[in-house]
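Weekly sync, protein design subgroup
Attendees: M.S., D.O., the rotation student, P.L. (late)

Item 1: inverse folding check
M.S. brought a backbone from last month's batch and wanted to see whether the design step gives back something sensible before we order anything. D.O. pointed out we never logged the input encoding, so this time it goes straight into the notes. Structure tokens as presented (127 positions):
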């Protein structure tokens, strides 16, 4: 069973790299690029939208949302592009994942704003 989980995770990682390559391809429609870029950025981001320390919900995004986003994105991209991107993805996987500091910073900013907003609301409630 553990081997099946490892194989599933490897396949998921491979698909993310394929989507990353597809984002940069001109043959992909703009709406597919936009959706795919969001899925890839979220998958590569070191920060989750739902933090892992939140019981059940924290891992829900990693187990359900990311694979679901990958599945939808793969259906939006033409098959010819996917076959070309598979080759590029294999090369990238050997070199390591790309870093997306902009999206990571954006997620940190969103969480910071949520925390500040929450603190202000709590302060006003008790004042």
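Designed sequence read out in the meeting:
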């Amino acid at each position: 069973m553990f081997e099946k989980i490892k194989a599933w995770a490897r396949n998921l990682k491979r698909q993310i790299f394929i989507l990353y390559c597809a984002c940069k391809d001109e043959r992909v429609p703009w709406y597919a690029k936009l959706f795919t870029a969001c899925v890839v950025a979220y998958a590569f981001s070191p920060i989750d939208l739902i933090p892992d320390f939140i019981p059940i919900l924290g891992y829900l995004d990693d187990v359900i949302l990311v694979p679901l986003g990958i599945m939808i994105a793969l259906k939006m991209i033409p098959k010819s592009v996917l076959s070309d991107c598979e080759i590029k993805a294999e090369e990238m996987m050997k070199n390591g994942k790309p870093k997306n500091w902009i999206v990571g910073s954006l997620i940190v900013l969103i969480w910071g704003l949520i925390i500040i907003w929450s603190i202000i609301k709590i302060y006003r409630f008790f004042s």
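Discussion: Helices lie at 2-23, 30-44, 57-76, 79-95, 101-126. Residues 101-126 form the longest helix (26 residues).
Action: P.L. to compare against the previous round before Friday.
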